[in-house]
Design goal:
The chain is α/β, with parallel strands linked by helices and 261 residues long. The chain contains 9 helices and 7 strands. The chain has one domain: NAD(P)-binding Rossmann-like Domain (Rossmann fold, 3-Layer(aba) Sandwich).
């Protein structure tokens, strides 16, 4: 049984989630559906298609409509086509959650131009142009809410994550700047910034001997890293205009206290 998120007042809202097939994106997509929103799922056509079908079935089981649009978010044309398809299908777009990203891991001296380009394209360029395309729909209709998934690495420097940290810092500042431009027209852009989150792709790192003890004792005052579900309430709060009307251009840390020391 899903959580009761009805108090977030998102019934019949139209929400786009990028990278929704697993991890944070999946949890957020389900949370939006549990709050009553209809979903546009924008997943790369080459990845996680079985998981995407399962997610679509779960959301439909909650009584919500689902539109799946295969989208490589590093391709501006595909981003724009996805947003156009969402508008054509549902008539409006109320919510955009930019979750899709790429993590470049490795020493800065070993990084290649492809590492840099892939990270920036998927993590920064995609966010900007998805926000732009959605805002072109949201502003004429009277407003909308955008949440970009940032990272605690945007604030706390981290060895082997120089490019990724720079990319997520760009997402944080970009979100502030977009709110500055669009808030008076009803489109508010905020950030949810998690710490390490236990997903299928991260599990091999988290299971390294001694890693859990080091992170939870030295980095996380809460004593644990995130589960994907830890991000859901924060996102739903920020996309609910009734609950967060005056939260504009904000970075909401959901990081177990990582960045307080």
């Amino acid at each position: 049984m899903g959580m009761d998120y009805s108090s977030f007042q998102l019934k019949d809202k139209i929400a786009i989630v990028t990278g929704p097939s697993q991890g944070i994106g999946r949890a957020v997509a389900l949370g939006l559906a549990q709050a009553g929103a209809h979903l546009v799922l924008a997943e790369h056509p080459a990845y996680h298609q079985d998981a995407l079908k399962e997610l679509k079935s779960e959301i439909e089981g909650l009584g919500c409509k689902v539109l799946v649009v295969p989208t490589d978010v590093s391709d501006i044309g595909q981003i724009r086509a996805m947003v156009d398809k969402a508008k054509e299908t549902f008539g409006r777009i109320d919510i955009l959650v930019n979750n899709a990203s790429w993590t470049c891991t490795g020493l800065a001296l070993d990084a290649t131009e492809k590492d840099y380009d892939d990270t920036m394209s998927t993590t920064v360029k995609s966010v900007f142009f998805a926000c732009q395309a959605a805002a072109k729909v949201m502003i004429p209709q009277g407003g909308g809410r955008i949440v970009n998934i940032g990272s605690n690495f945007a604030i706390s420097a981290w060895r082997t994550r120089a490019i990724y940290s720079a990319a997520k810092a760009a997402v944080h500042q970009l979100s502030r700047a977009l709110s500055l431009e669009w808030a008076k027209q009803g489109v508010v852009v905020n950030v949810v910034a998690p710490c390490i989150t236990e997903t299928a792709s991260r599990r091999p790192i988290l299971e390294k001997p001694g890693y859990k003890e080091w992170v939870t004792s030295d980095k996380l005052p809460s004593g644990r890293w995130n589960q994907p579900e830890d991000l859901v309430g924060a996102v739903l709060f920020l996309v609910s205009p009734q609950l967060s009307a005056q939260v504009v251009g904000h970075v909401l840390m959901v990081d177990g206290g990582w960045t307080i020391h």
